[in-house]
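2024-03-11 09:14:02 DEBUG pipeline.ingest accepted 1 chain
2024-03-11 09:14:02 DEBUG pipeline.ingest length=175
2024-03-11 09:14:03 DEBUG pipeline.predict start
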Amino acid sequence: MKYFCALLLAVCICHGNIAAAVTAGSRMPAFTVYAGKSDVLESSSLQGKVIIITYETRESKDTNNDFKAKVSKYYFSAEGKQDILAIVPVINCFKYFWPVKRYCIKEVRKDSKKTTFKLYVDRYGDMSAAFGVQKQESNVFLVDKQGLVRFVKKGKLEDQECIEVLDLIKNLVNE
């Protein structure tokens, strides 16, 4: 039993996805995501901005389409505020093994050309581990200008939650 507990502890320590989940009130972890071979987004470049992160798989990317459409509408109607509002849609391609991962990245790049905002890829699973995302779900994170996480939702946002989060976004942008 003693050896089993030690082995279990070692697995938990070594396995990156056992990281504590990001919660409202915690500091946003550092991350790096990719939109292309040389197109890299590092969290440090978003300092001082209100950040909306959606972290999804290719299978769950449509879960919060209503919310994402409302955020997009607000983004383009908030004249003069786009420079302090960052929308970061991330697709998890790390979960796939090598040949499928390449296909996933290629498809995300192709999909990115059809969307309003550039789509990013978590190639190595670092962001997934740092944020403690719920696998196979749509994950939504809202971060204020000081880098504090203000809202976290894993799964579909209900209509009332969408209204509340959009109000919070507007308040944070206007601070």
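2024-03-11 09:14:41 DEBUG pipeline.report Strands lie at 32-34, 40-42, 50-56, 85-92, 120-122, 139-143, 149-154.
2024-03-11 09:14:41 DEBUG pipeline.predict end
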